[in-house]
Design goal:
By secondary structure, the protein is an alpha+beta fold. The chain is built from 15 helices and six strands. A four-stranded mixed sheet has the order 2-1-3-4. Strands 5-6 form a two-stranded antiparallel ribbon. Strand 5 and strand 6 form a beta hairpin. The radius of gyration is 21 Å and the shape is globular.
């Protein structure tokens, strides 16, 4: 995960010099983007603030269900929770604060995970331009999860957050501090020659042999889950930007959504919506080339959706079997940031993913309702 200007998911790359020059001529400013998905300040001189606005806006993109109050539903909730493979977190043992951009796919992944596991958490929406909300952190990216339990522990990187918290839910033999230490940050140089920070073991759960057997009765299930979690980060997320910014009209619609859902000032929002849409339309073409996508980028999105459905197969509702696993939650979290946009509608009508997607919505919705009911004080 490089530290540079960002576009909200790992698909965005640095704008080539010729495009920056053209952008300046058009009043766009020094917009920079990066391939690893999160955000740091962008732009210098007179264009610095405008660049941060564009970059912050481009970061994000994205995406209820009713409450049921009957005794029968409460019993179903209790049965469902008893079937969970991992032990649930006591409601009063941890306080979680998620710093996020609502429409960022990586933040969406973390929310899907926490919601499905019934973990209460507070959300702090970060302003994509100034990012004052995370000024306490030297790690200038989102999501950030602060865990308050006596002292405060900061977890970075969406996949590390998910793996560490899932390990903690499944095994109480280690403290959360010990678990997080199993995911060390490492400096590396990516294939484009840029220094990045990666996290070792980020798709692994740090469980002993007995816990692993309980979590994954079939050894191949663990390998499959890790493979598709990595696929969601390394491939699926790269398809979002080229598809949601595919045409000028789609780019404008995407930024309209970003500004409505994000935390922007009036001037920032206006600038992000109109100038950012133009800039991201051109950046999306560069992304298409970098990731070797087809001329019609929808075809890559359709193929990814159908590949995912094919991997699940016809005999199980989720990759995790009767219940979603971490791969289901990761893929769902990435895809749902397109909800309400043309790319999402096309994916739903042109691929076989819709039944699985609706099952995921239902599973997460029911988990939230069940855990909400179980946390209510008795009358």
């Amino acid at each position: 995960m490089a530290a540079a200007a960002c576009t909200g998911w790992r698909g965005l790359v640095q704008l080539p010099r010729r495009l920056r020059a053209a952008g300046q001529a058009a009043g766009v400013g020094l917009l920079r983007a990066q391939s690893r998905g999160y955000c740091t300040p962008g732009g210098t001189g007179g264009y610095a603030r405008g660049s941060r606005m564009l970059v912050g806006a481009a970061f994000a993109l994205g995406g209820t269900f009713g409450l049921f109050q009957t005794l029968q539903y409460r019993l179903r909730a209790q049965e469902h929770l008893a079937e969970q493979q991992a032990a649930e977190l006591p409601a009063d043992s941890l306080q979680l604060t998620l710093y996020q951009y609502k429409t960022c796919p990586f933040c969406s992944k973390v929310r899907a995970f926490l919601d499905y596991h019934g973990v209460p958490y507070e959300i702090v929406e970060v302003n994509p331009v100034m990012r004052k909300e995370i000024k306490f952190s030297s790690y200038r990216k989102v999501p950030i999860l602060l865990v308050h339990a006596g002292n405060t522990l900061q977890l970075n990187d969406s996949s590390v957050i998910i793996s560490a918290m899932k390990t903690y839910f499944a095994s109480r033999k280690k403290s959360l501090e010990e678990i997080v230490s199993c995911y060390p940050p490492m400096k590396a140089v990516n294939k484009w020659g840029k220094e990045v920070t990666e996290y070792g073991n980020k798709y692994w759960l740090m469980l002993d042999e007995m816990e692993t057997q309980q979590m994954y009765p079939i050894k191949e299930d663990k390998v499959e889950e890790m493979k598709w979690r990595k696929w969601a980060d390394d491939w699926l997320v790269h398809l979002i930007s080229p598809n949601v910014y595919r045409t000028p009209r789609e780019a404008l619609a995407s930024f309209d959504y970003i500004v409505c859902e994000g935390k922007f000032g009036t001037v920032e929002g206006f600038f992000a919506k109109y100038v950012g849409a133009v800039a991201m339309f051109f950046i999306s073409k560069r992304l298409k080339s970098r990731h070797q996508l087809q001329d019609n980028v929808r075809e890559d999105l359709y193929k990814a959706a159908n590949d995912w459905v094919k991997a699940i197969g016809k005999h199980r509702p989720f990759m995790g079997g009767s219940q979603p696993n971490l791969a289901d939650l990761a893929v769902y979290g990435v895809l749902r940031v397109m909800e309400g946009l043309e790319a999402y509608n096309d994916m739903m009508t042109q691929t076989k993913i819709q039944p699985w997607y609706h099952r995921m919505e239902k599973a997460i919705g029911e988990a939230e309702v069940m855990n909400w009911q179980l946390l209510q004080p008795p009358y």
